[in-house]
Every structure is written in structure tokens, then in C-alpha cells.
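Chain A, query sequence.
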Amino acid sequence: MQDTLNALLAKAPAELAALKSRAEFEAAKARYVGPNGEFTALMKQLGTVPKEQRPVMGKLINEAKGQLQAQLDATLQRIADAEIAAQLGPAVDPTLPSPDAGPGTYHPLTQVREEMCRIMRKAGFTVVEGPEVETEYYCFDALNTAPDHPARDAQDTFYFPEAARFGNVSKKVEGEKYLLRTHTSSVQIRTMLKGQPPIRVISPGRVYRRDTTDATHSANFHQLEGLYVDKNVTVRDLKAMLDYIFASLLGKGTTTRFRPHYFSYTEPSFEVDLSAKHLPKVNKEWIEIGGCGMVDPAVFEAVGYDPNVWSGYAFGMGLERLAMLVYGIDDIRYFYQNDVRFLKQFA
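Chain A, predicted structure.
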């Protein structure tokens, strides 16, 4: 039996190396380890081996089975790689000139982000960035978001397993979870913790929420948020800034209005609507564009600011929605499809 086992292992490599297709592989696999295969037949003979020899022979069969399975796996991988290579064709030479005429262009979302940053820099704002992987403290606790707030539910936020570790993002509170940030407001908290006011910053970046993807929503999108902290900052300053931003980006015919709303980190809080009927594909008098408000005193206390001395405003908006208004795009999914025909329109 041992001689038969050795002979089978000796002939398998050459036979498997000659296989060229999945059909040939499946046939060879059946001959070896199928219900009526050679190796299967040997395993069935183990019962005829004298009792005292069975442990040794059983060990040899298991070792042989492992060797044969490794050869089968390697053969299948080789055939699969060959199939992929045949589909891909010859390798592309990256040194060849591009068949596309003219230079490349920035993605429309990048163009809108850079234009917004340019507008805000003119108003004295500095661009700051932070990690996309955050902790509950920076994303929720320091922003006055209660533990039972719906935004903290696992159905709204992407949490990492408790065993996950990120060396570049330290936990502020023992036992808190890591998550993908749901807004760039966490960058504002990090900024305030670094020093005292006055502060005037914007924080553009990618954010994540559990959402159904359709023409106007995506689980992965981009935000731009602003924060201004100084003495005697009022709602009037906030309204004037938003009027300046949207008029600069969308044209002088753009106007804004506030509607009362609730955000845990601002008080009072407002939804921001804008009117821009001069833009393409805008068929409503008012369009919801973002949220804003005066920074809640509890947020100032969390970062060590005296709310009796300092006041400030914060606002946030989605870059995709702005880009859709600027370029007349009616489906957010176009931004993520990497369709060259779509992207070439923004050269």
C-alpha cells in the first residue's frame, strides 16, 4: 500500500503540470480524489491494514493527502491566472503616449472643494484636516451628542470591531469605540483642543454614514464645515458669511434663508436654504443646502473655552450637492463611476 501511495505522489506533479483548462483539471481531480479516485481507493483500504500498522499508515495517508491537495490548489491557481492573463491581453506599456488628446482634469468634486477653499481663504479662514477614522469622543461626546442620540446607533454609523487598533488615532476616553467619522465636525474639536481663540477654520473631507445610495444620497460623501470663534460673534455674522459664500460660488442672484432646526452642538440651530433659479436644472424656489448655528456653550466647556467670553458659529454642507448645483448634475452616483465620458466634461 505504501508503494502504491508513493507511486501516486510521484506521477501527480507531471500530470498536473500538463493541464491547460479547468475541464482538464476537474477530470484529473476526480481521478485522484473523486468518489472513485485513486487516492480515495487507497484511503478505503486502510481498514484492511493490520491493526498495529494503522496509526503509521494513517499518518502517511494524511501527509500524502496534504501534499496532493497543495498540488491541486497550485494547479488550479495557475490555470486561473492564465485565464485572467488571456482576458487582459498583453501588458500595457506605461511609457507610451496617451491616446486621449489634451491634458487631464481635476475631478468635479475636487474643483468645487478647491473653489470653496479659495473663497473661504479670502474671508480669513484656514483649511484644516483630520483623520477619517475617529473615536466616539471627537465625533460625538465633545459635540454634545447624547449617548442615546440616533446618530450614534449602529444603523446610522460605521463602527469598527472592539479589537481594532489605529496607532495614529488615540482614544480620549477609555472604552470608547473607533468609527468612520460621520461629519468633519470632529476636526473642529481637534482644532479647538490645540489652542485658544480666535479661530477661523474650514474642514473639508470625506465622511461616512449608513445610507441607501440613490440619485441624491451616498454612504460615502464629502463635507465642508466651517468654525469661527471670537468675542461677540452673532447670528448676523453667520448669515452674512453664508450669503458671501453662496454668492461667490453660485452667482450674485443667490440668496439664503434660515429655518429653525435642532443640532446637538449648536444653539440656536438652523437649516440653510438657498434660492438660485438662475442655475441649470434648479426647478425649486428654495433648496436645502446645509446646516448651521451658534456653537453650544457645552461644546466650548468640553474643549476648555469660557462660554461667557467666547462665542462662535459653525456651518456644514455637502460638496456633492454644491457640485450638482454648479454643474447641473442630477445624479450623485455619476461622481463615483469613474466614467471618462463624464469626467472629460469638466476639463
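Residues 108-346 form a domain with the BirA Bifunctional Protein; domain 2 fold (CATH 3.30.930.10). The two ends are 73 Å apart (CA to CA).
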